[in-house]
Amino acid sequence: MNPSSKFERLEFLTSKVLDEIASSDEISELEGLIQSHADYRKRYAFLVTQESLLHWESAEVVEYPSIVKEFKLISFPVFSSVAACVAALFCAWTLFFENPDSDLEGSLASNDLVVEKNGAAFSSDSGSKSSSGDASSPRVVANQSLLADFRKKTLVAHAVEVLENNRRFDDDAVVEMHRDHTSWSRINHLSVPAQNGILPFDGNQMIKMSEMSVDVDARIAKVEETLQVLDVRKLPNPAQTKIDAEIFVNNGSSSNHHTTEFKLSVRALHGERGEARISLGSSSNAIVADSDLTSWERLASEFTLPEGTDFLVISLTAQVEGAQALLPHNPGNYADLLSVNFKSSKDSVTAPL
Amino acid sequence: MEDESVPFEYSRKLTAIQRSLYAYILSMLPNRSDAEDILQETNLILCRKANEYDPEGHFQGWAFRIARFQIMAHMTKARRSKIHFSNELVDAMTEEDFDTKTLNVTQRALQICYDLLPKHMRSIARLRFKDEKNLREISALVNRPLGSVSATLHRIRQNLAQCVRQKIPAVEAEMDS
To answer: What is the pLDDT of residue A101?
Structure first.
């Protein structure tokens, strides 16, 4: 067999292997070919890479051909990888619920990844170490909060990547470009119609927060959603600009046993492309929601942009503390009508974002 | 200012290599379900080991070594997949073949080449790669014999591979400019 037909044979066998219809003899033959020469190994690696991209990126490749044509300078891959990681980590998070006996969990128990610079804005679950009483649950909880925290950071990293690269669309959010700032918003992606007896505060959609993760030892049930990330690098005089954020919340439970605290946070990030982001500061305001399904409570937070602010992260946290955190969760935590305004020193207002 | 146990930069690096990592795993475990399981396990270990990573070190190499151990363990522990290569193949595959930069260029070229596929190929490609149907399901959906679907998918992969190889120099030049 000449080299050319060997390459063809390799491609044919690889295709069968990837379609999971190769016989054991064909698998052995392919393996022999791959190991026989570096060129065959490279061709095989190329074909597998192409296959992985087709599956991994199929949503973009198949659904957005016109957008790809339009923005030829967009560096798709990084965006896709971040989105993929979010999905992968989310799957991993799910995996742990399905496999609580996994040997990986023991060493993940110390919640060692959940640390934050600015506790006020992104205060993390603390003290979730394995208890001697229940060997499995606390470990699962630690992993859960660990992965939830990592997922949150990954999402912000992803948003920053999207904004830095001036991408105009994203699987995870809506990107809106304005004159002097760009917004990456997940609100549409988190929106649901009326449910569980709760009507949206405004319009026919409202934000539904993800399910809370429970830290059994610390007796805290908590969920944090990154709602919006703003690119303010082009904002004139950012150091003289204030940001007002406002949202309405509803804890979704009619039970008096559930007192959910909601916290709206704004965090400023600084950092050049390729550098680690530094949190310049943050501001947050909290409110304890009532148990009336029909009422929505207003929650607002104001923040003066520190000098050097490149990105702003707006997030909403719902948290239940104490014994009630261990009770079955309420059907959901809801928010609506997020409004974010920039106020310059001359009292000009840009709103809503 | 306190240090984060999982620094933002670490998250960024981890997310940036996800597709390379997946391709590397898939090359040795050419079964998507198994490859995804190993990817998840590897991600978890990488999260756990965030504090052990030397920021001056080569992140991709470090991550790939961890993935390699997971693949070997998977192969040793259970032959869950019908398709199974030997440990020798794991030794033969190198991380350089899944370099992130090359993968980015390939991705860009693939986007261009996908658009150039004939319509009938695109509909099969969509079923296989986007909707993740297996050959039997595709065969039923398009009312064609399984062998014919398999041959079409092979041609799709061949066409794409050939086109991507041709486009790579132009894409590299575009991305470098």
So the answer is: 39
Q: Considering chain A, what is the average pLDDT of its residues?
A: 71
Closest to A61 measured CA to CA, from B113, B138, B20, B157: B113
| CB-CB neighbours of A179 under 10 Å | 8
Residue B155 has pLDDT above 90, yes or no: yes
DSSP assigned state of B130 = I
* B contact test, residue of A9, A24, A51 with most B CBs within 10 A: A51
Cα separation, B108 vs B97, whole angstroms:
17
Tell whether A33 is within 8 A of chain B (Cβ).
no
Using CA coordinates, name the residue in chain B closest to A83. B15
Q: Are A265 and A335 in contact (CB under 8 A)?
A: no
Mark B56-75 as b/e (b = at least 16 C-beta within 10 Å).
eeebbebbbebbbebbeebb
Contact A222, A125 (CB under 8 A): yes
CA-CA distance, A18 to A31, in Å (whole number)?
A: 13
- Cross-chain CB nearest to B83 (options A22, A34, A161): A22
> Could you report the per-residue pLDDT of A91-125, keeping only the tens digit for each?
444 444 444 433 333 333 333 332 233 333 333 33
Q: Do A51 and B106 touch (CB under 8 A)?
A: no
Partners of A48 on chain B (C-beta within 8 Å) are 23, 26-27, 30
Judged by CB atoms closer than 8 Å, whether chains meet at A113 and B30 is answered as no
Q: pLDDT, tens digit, for every residue of B68-89?
A: 999 988 887 756 555 578 888 8
ipTM field: 0.91
